[in-house]
Structure formats: structure tokens, C-alpha cells
Amino acid sequence: MNIRDMIDLENVSHEDLDEIIRLAGVIKENPSYYTDHCHGNIMATLFYEPSTRTQMSFQTAMLRLGGKLIGFDNPGNSSVSKGESLKDTIRVVSNYADIIVIRNAFEGAALAASMYSKCPVINAGDGGHLHPTQTLTDLVTLSYEKGRLDHLVIGLCGDNKNGRTVHSLIKSLSKYEGNRFVMISTPELRVPQYVIDCLEENGCEYSFSESLEDSIAELDVLYMTRIQRERFASQSEYESQKGVFVLDESKMKLAKPDLRVLHPLPRVDEITVGVDDDPRAKYFDQTEYGMYARMALIIKMLENRRFSVPKKLPDTHNHVKCTNMRCITQTEEYLPKRFAQSGDSLICGYCEHEAE
Ligand code: NCD
Questions:
Q1: What percent of the chain has pLDDT over 90?
Q2: 134 lines ligand 1 (CB under 6 A)
Q3: How far is the CA of 182 from the centre of ligand 1 (A)?
Q4: Taking the mean position of all CA atoms in its chain, how far away is CA 18?
Q5: For residue range 190-202, what is the model confidence (pLDDT) as tens digits?
Q6: Which pLDDT score is estimated for 316?
Q7: Does ligand 1 lie within 6 Å of residue 128's CB atom?
Q8: What is the pLDDT of residue 30?
Q9: What are the sequence ranges of the domains in the chain?
Q10: Which spans in the chain are helix H?
């Protein structure tokens, strides 16, 4: 792999991605061959936000490779509760671990962590921004369940605004030829501008829909997501959005026989349990693919690891402040400013939001 850290799949070449997907399949067929592959290595899982699948699937992946684990899933029990900065926590933990997996509520947190880490860092979700290893899971699932990652009509239904898995998946699949995207949500929960920009840059066809019923028949893949309650400013705003899109058996009757339904989970009420037994529902198989995807990723990253703190970047646009209140620069004020010029606008290098 030509990268040290896994922050955004955008930085991973297609060759490396193909290799990880292929290796995940090989491990799935011969898991016993890999039981000692990472013997002697330690993974730190630093989960500042709740998780079931991602954390346990990383931990299981490392244990199945013969490695060991340290970390926390309740920062309240760590020095974070005493006011320790992200930078200090990472500097310390990267002296102990060979690889760090981090989930944090602030957007750009994994990138910030990688700037102070001696060892490779994996982004396990940074707020409502990105979730590249869920996308890896989704790509492995699609490769084996659909047999291809190109020329697909992909429906994304639910919280397209706050769903980080949606953003990472669109960014990735937009790089494959012939994919078309149907983004099904209320107008309030449409994907952020940086996702649209990515579709435009890659010349992808896309459309918006407000009806799952009207759109389902044309889809090869339906990616359902829950409404992300924790990202709403108030309970009433959340209440007004929840329960709008529900996939049930009657809608499945309108879909293609080879549709594949994916969901990063957890499910709340957006897929009825009656759909679970439909052979086109793949969201529980997806969790198994995810473990093999993470085993493959860990192997590749440890094979190529480089232990050194990346060079400190110079500040760009030092006078500008990111206006996204969920950006990591709001709380970790020592971070160097990283803005990129895009036309007349400045885009924050941590959270990808436009500075006003
Ligand atoms: C997702 C996440 O945390 O973003 N879950 C996961 O990692 N499998 C989706 C979600 O929480 O809705």
C-alpha cells in the first residue's frame, strides 16, 4: 500500500483496493492460514463514540490474526476526562501500539490523530464525515454479492446528510465506471456539497428522489441507513425526519430479483424484520464480510508500516476559521490550519466544509 494511514479511501489506489478485496476473499476461504499473521503486534482501539460492529469487528479481526488489543470505548475512563488533548493521547498511545483505530464525534479527528501518531492510524468514523472501513466492508460485500463494483444503479436511502457511511461509499463508488446514484431522502437530509462535488468531478450520473417506492424498481443495490439521531440539534428536528422511509415486504415486491440490500447497521425502524428473510437482504452477511475486510486491511497496513511522526505541515490561511461546529479544529485549537482553494471558496482540509 502506498499510504501509511487509512483516513479516506480516496487516497487508496484502485490496485490497493482490489488487493484488499481479493485478500479478504482469500482469508474468508482459508481463515486458519492467517491465525498467526500478526503475532506480536498490538492494536489500540480508541472509541470516543459508541460502536458495536466496527469496534468488535476490528478487535475480532486482530485477535483472529494472532495480535493483541489495548484501548478504551469509554473515554470517560481515560485521561480524556481530565482534559487531555487528542494530540497528547495519540502521542502516548502510538508509543504502545503498532496500529491505532480511532472513532471520534468530531469531523477530521482521524486525520488530526494521524498527524501526531508514530504508527499507522485507521479512521473508524469521524462524526458525520467519513467511515472508510465501512465502505471497505460494503465494497467487499458488493464484489462478492454482485460480482462487480461498476455499472451499478445504487440507491442510498435515509440520512444522506449525516450518514458518514453514505459519504464514503459514494466517494468510492463514483470512481468506478458507469455507476449511477439515486439519492433518496427528504430535502433536509440530502448529501453535503462535497459529496455532490465528488460526483460531478467523476462525471457520474445522479438524481434525487423523495420516494423509495418510486425508485426501488430501477436499483441494483439499495443502501439503507438510519436517521442519525445524535447528529440533530434537537429531538423535535429528529422526530420530524424519522420513519419517513421504511423498506418493507411490499416494497421488496417492486424490486429486481437480483437487488442487494445493504445497511451498515444498527437498524432502527427503516427496514422491517419481515425483510430479513428475503434472500436479497445482505446486511447481516455484510458484517461477516466486514471482519474479513478488516483482517485484510490490517495485514496490508502492518506490512507497509512506517513508524515516524509525519512532518508538521505549515499553516495555510492562518486567519481563517472553519465554520463547521463539528470540525475537530473547533476543539483542538493547536491544529495547523489546512484550507484548500476551490474556485472562489476555501475548503477545510479536516472536515471538507466550505469556510464562509
Ligand atoms: C455506522 C456508523 O457508525 O456510522 N455503523 C457502523 O459503523 N456499522 C452507521 C450508523 O451508526 O448508523
A1: 88
A2: yes
A3: 21
A4: 18
A5: 999 999 999 999 9
A6: 76
A7: no
A8: 96
A9: 9-131+288-303, 146-283, 313-356
A10: 14-29, 53-64, 86-96, 109-114, 132-145, 164-173, 193-201, 212-215, 235-241, 249-252, 283-303
Task: Name the region of 337 (left: φ>0; alpha: ψ -120 to 50; beta: rest).
Answer: beta
User: Which residue shows C-alpha cell 500478526?
Assistant: 38
- In this structure, the number of other CB atoms found within 10 A of the CB of residue 82 comes to 6
Give the pLDDT confidence score for residue 192 in this predicted structure: 96
Helix (H, G, I), strand (E, B) or coil at 341: strand
For ligand 1, say whether the CB of 164 is within 6 Å of any of its atoms. yes
What's the CATH number of domain 9-131+288-303, 3.30.700.30, 3.40.50.300, 3.40.190.10, 3.40.50.1370?
Answer: 3.40.50.1370
Buried b (16+ CB within 10 A) or exposed e, 234-244: eeeebeebbeb
pTM given for the model: 0.96
**In sequence order, what are the residues at sequence separation of 6 or more whose Cβ sits closer than 8 angstroms to the Cβ of residue 10?**
171, 172
Q: How many C-beta atoms surround the C-beta of residue 257 within 10 A? A: 6
Task: State residue 287's pLDDT score.
Answer: 97
Calculate the alpha carbon distances from 201 to 194, 232, 245 in Å.
Answer: 10, 29, 29
Same fold, 9-131+288-303 and 146-283: yes
pLDDT of residue 342: 85
Which CATH architecture group holds 146-283? 3-Layer(aba) Sandwich (3.40)
Q: What is the pLDDT of residues 142-157, one digit of tens each?
A: 999 999 999 999 999 9
Residue 96: the pLDDT is 98
Q: Give the whole-angstrom CA distance, residue 335 versus residue 356.
A: 19
Rounded Cα–Cα distance for residues 1 and 14 (Å): 11
Alpha carbon of 267 to ligand 1 centroid (Å): 9
d(CA 22, ligand 1 centre) in Å? 24
Q: Which among 105, 89, 91, 99 has a CA at the least distance from the CA of 67?
A: 99
Q: What cell was used for 257?
A: 430479483
SS3 call for 245: coil
Residues in the chain where the model's pLDDT stays below 50 = none
CA 102 to chain centre: 12
- With a 6 Å cutoff on the Cβ, whether 53 touches ligand 1 is yes
What is the average pLDDT score of the chain? 95
